[in-house]
């Protein structure tokens, strides 16, 4: 594996990290069909925890089997596969070494009465399962946001000390945020910035809408005449908010939508300079054949071929 | 670096601290254009966390890049640069040894529904990033004030044991305090005194207004005929409240305002005997050229040359 | 320092304590002009935290300097000086060995919206600062009283294990207590008894009024025909409640009042058999000259000479 | 206890120590008839362990009782009493607070087949027994010298962290040292210097003879024309070797000898600038009356009165 | 302190170190008259432990005082001062922040009957004393060499984790090594290489003679026609052995010799590409005036001016 210049430049941004962490970042960045390009597509499968198995897997019953997702990520030539404890425990041996994995350490479920998550995986789990990174979700804006950040800090510090990479899902919600505000462009930029400040290596946020939630942000953006009229421009704005591009940012696919809708969105995400996509429901809720076709196109978009 | 008599006298006030902590205080006091004068100007950049990237950096887009701030503090000849975890992680290697750094361990964000902060950095982080000090914020008056003080104590005790210095932002808010009360002269003096009692080495408070918030304090000040009619006199009063000058106190620039307003305020702060200023938004929200010009004048004010 | 028989008898009451703790109690009991008499006068200076620097020190500006209080306690020939972390840190080296010190580990401030305190000092702090004892406040009756008692227990147990003495400020307030009830004789006796039960070596309570707060206590006292008509008799009752005199109890001077008022109260406290007084505001809010004169008379009262 | 300027100057040499350790040094330096002079006489009673009870106490049977030695040290007005665990455990309560004590942590016995000692006391023991210092013996030159130094370091670091002082008995023996070499002036100066380098606060060595053991040292001393012809001059040389007088050095009385021999030796030790004497067998192997008379004269010698 | 390109290139060789360790390396590399050149001169004073105070300090009696050496290193404009625990404890407060210090953690003495050293300082000591690095000695070839290496590893790992730099004295001796072999060019190159392999940041070895000790090394060098005829070439060979110049190597001055001998040797050391010299006895055993003159010339040699 000869590390490309593009990947070396990305790794160089992680100035304070030990070579172990850089090695794990390199594993993700060099794996799959996008390996070496500085772009990445990740398959995340935590929707079973978040929404229950019926909403998640009934549309495509083979997806009830954890091995299905490992195999899908591998066959699609993706960079990494992210999942919670049980999902990885059920396949980590069969697929040992086959694809970089990310152990998602916390999740919420659809019964939740508070904006919080259960932490049910550990850094030690990540090591024994051969993962390249840990994953964690925070809810900026929620009443428990500071507790979530503090939980993240402890796990992140521990992970970095043993050479793992750290992926942070930064999903604003709760508190005074309106529903539209959760994906507002200012709030999304803020979420990406918070994740960078908290020390994340890879940041996951949602594609931002053109809504601006906070009055003061609105004033500042208008005064500075920041053009946020297209998704591409909003993506570029989020990348800038993540340390002027010094941190890897990937965007989720959001709610399941039609194939063309997904692809069009990703074309703009790629054009905006994002590092990639993290595509869950939009892939595994289709048949394996359709999912592979979709992921093939997405990979090609990031290769500049589609 | 021959330590000046003025700095030695300041260090001698930290009677119970180990030579390691004094060494780190000396590093800050001896660095930059004010090195050796006993005065200091510090660049703090935690506004991205507190107010979001748009409000913080849109006015001057190069400031989205963490390296920008390191370079600004160095080029302006400041004493130290203070920032949260991610900001320092993104530049600590490139700028190793170039300027003393202060790792800010906690922050709030503009979504917060409570007067509290997330603690997301550690003393171990400060050591591995080569920092000279840790920074922490408390909100005297807030419902969670005692918890914040207790969090501070633990981190402070740990920091002192490994030879780091401790900077405390003491910002009254919440509880029964009126908005005007947050910067009232009695409340500010109280905030500085609390920080000293909690064991801080360097105390950051806001410039006090002539408002007196607490009835009992008003009576005591009137009875003692304490003259608080000018900012200079109020600054002197705050310094007195910080152990009669035995603790270093620096004042923030407050909300961004016109250049002349900033400078006039700092002239009075300096005249009142403050140890210096900590200037964030007022510097990095201007163009680099304007910021360097402003900081140059501020440094000259503390040198007694402007 | 030849330990007097009177002090030996007092030490003998601390049957389960290690010789280290008795050594530190002996240091306090043998120090100053009352050394060896079994009586003690202590200077406490935590009012800056509790009420702010203006209310505390504006009446006598030299008192803004932490060294002032060390020197006052020494020059007045008192038994010990009690203060919070920062106050001791600012003078512990200059005055090392000059007077026994008590590190007050928790405090409240006048902004507080709850009846609670911040714990911001540690047993380790007490050891590194050369203190003979730790000090702690509980609020019997407050909603958080049990948490405060539990915090005390942990620190007390830790202190006893390393040979320190433990001083407990037992100040009823909050909950169902009326304002008058806070200093009612039954409530004060109860507070002293609780402190003894919690394992304190030295107990600080306020001089009790003749108000009786609790109905059941009233009935019992009346049935037993306990005479509580004078302060002297009430003091004797409180001493009895503190294990029939087996625990050292000292009384605060309360709110600043006229010299004669202070002295008359202390004469009765002494007559009632108290171990001594702990005099803060009433001493340091006067000029040094007046404070030394007042403390001289107080010491003489406990010597039986005034 | 008003700390004298002489004692303050001595304490100032312990630059890196916490106020707690300085407080304990001050306790020893301010106690007894020599309190405040910067001189000290210490009673050490570990001969029972080293030589057995018969050789140690048969000459003066009351000395079999541990209380005897506490009382002797107190009645003679000495600065401190040093003894092993059991000796202190047997009297620490009866004499709590009466005299500073030094817990000797290791000893050898007369059965020993190696030049080493058993470590049978702890820093925790010193705290629970109310000691002001720990004591330790090393044998520079012995085959096990480095292990002894490493044991010392661990205990010393622990003691300093909790505010205790550290006394080091530095007794060269074993290895290539001749019997005469054990008290040779070069070897004694070396022993004192090693103790200072190892971080001891108070150093105990034996009075040096005019023998020079090491060839290279002999050459250096002759070349520098160092006059070592009298005990006074040799003492001055040892003091110089202990950081040019920045460390307290006390000298043992050596083997029991006639009263005049002891006193004449101590006169020269005092004249050479030593900080004092540590007198075991020469005191407690006499009758109490004779011992008090002897110690009275020794104290007077250090007072410059005999 | 603007870090020079030359220093940045050196720091870049320490690829796996945290920014804290690089900060401390930068402090040493940027300090004093050679600051920024990539060259360094260090004053080490552990000869008192190694050879005793008489051999070390009798030639220049002011050197018995630990402050003398701090001041000498500062006045000569050196990069750092290295000394054992007691030496630093005796001056760390007076000279806090004035010059980077290196805490030497182990030493041998001239009584030693084995080729080993006592470890009597800790990483925690280095932090509380404000040191930039720890120092350690190993004896490659000695019977206890592996134990020494293992002790080093533990301390080194601990030091790196808290951001300290690590200096390793690599002095072959003992085992089958001939006396001449201890400074043989192959053995010295081996010693430097071992130090690099053990993870040292700064390596101290002795200037190599043209003796080749090991038969197999001799064959290899002859076969490769390595020219080792001059000291300059041998120094270049040692630098090459220390990771082809990727590790800082400094050379000791060896036994005290005439001024010209010292300077001539250092000219060749500098010409061979060494990073600098570590000069103990040759400096502090002269008068202060002569030492400053000598060190001035040495600094100029490394500046290319003498």
From TrEMBL, chains A, B, C, D, E:
InterPro entries: Aldolase_TIM, DeoC/FbaB/LacD_aldolase, DeoC/FbaB_aldolase, FbaB-like. Residues 214-241 form a coiled coil. Its EC number is 4.1.2.13. GO terms for molecular function: fructose-bisphosphate aldolase activity. Belongs to the DeoC/FbaB aldolase family. FbaB subfamily. Keywords: Coiled coil, Lyase, Schiff base. This is fructose-bisphosphate aldolase. It is an enzyme of class 4 (lyase). GO terms for biological process: glycolytic process. PANTHER family: FRUCTOSE-BISPHOSPHATE ALDOLASE CLASS 1. It comes from the Bacteria. The active site is at residues 171, 204. It holds the Pfam family DeoC. NCBIfam families: PRK09250.1-1 (NF006704).
């Amino acid at each position: 594996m000869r590390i490309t210049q593009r990947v070396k430049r990305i790794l160089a941004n992680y100035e304070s990290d030990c070579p172990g962490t850089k090695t794990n970042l390199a594993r993700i960045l060099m794996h799959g069909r996008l390996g070496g390009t500085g772009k990445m597509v990740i398959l995340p499968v935590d929707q079973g925890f978040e929404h229950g198995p019926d909403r998640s897997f009934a549309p495509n019953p083979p997806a009830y089997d954890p091995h299905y997702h490992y195999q899908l990520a591998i066959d699609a030539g993706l960079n990494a596969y992210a999942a919670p404890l049980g999902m990885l425990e059920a396949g980590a041996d069969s697929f040992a070494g086959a694809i970089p994995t990310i152990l998602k350490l916390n999740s919420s479920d659809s019964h939740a009465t508070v904006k919080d998550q259960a932490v049910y995986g550990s850094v030690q789990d990540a090591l024994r399962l051969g993962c390249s990174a840990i994953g964690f979700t925070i809810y900026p804006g929620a009443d428990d946001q500071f507790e979530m950040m503090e939980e993240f800090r402890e796990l992140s510090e521990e992970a970095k000390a043993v050479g793992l990479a750290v992926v942070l899902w930064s999903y604003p919600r709760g508190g005074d945020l309106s529903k539209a505000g959760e994906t507002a462009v200012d709030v999304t930029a803020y979420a990406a910035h918070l994740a960078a400040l908290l020390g994340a290596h890879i940041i996951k946020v949602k594609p931002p809408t053109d809504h601006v939630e906070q009055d003061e942000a609105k004033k500042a953006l208008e005064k500075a005449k920041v053009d946020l009229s297209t998704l591409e421009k909003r993506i570029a704005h989020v990348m800038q908010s993540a340390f002027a591009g010094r941190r890897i940012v990937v965007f989720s696919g959001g709610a399941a939508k039609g194939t063309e809708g997904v692809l069009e969105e990703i074309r703009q995400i790629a054009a905006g300079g994002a590092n990639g996509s993290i595509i869950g429901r939009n892939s595994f809720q289709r048949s394996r054949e359709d999912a592979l076709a979709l992921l093939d196109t997405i990979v090609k978009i990031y290769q500049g071929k589609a």
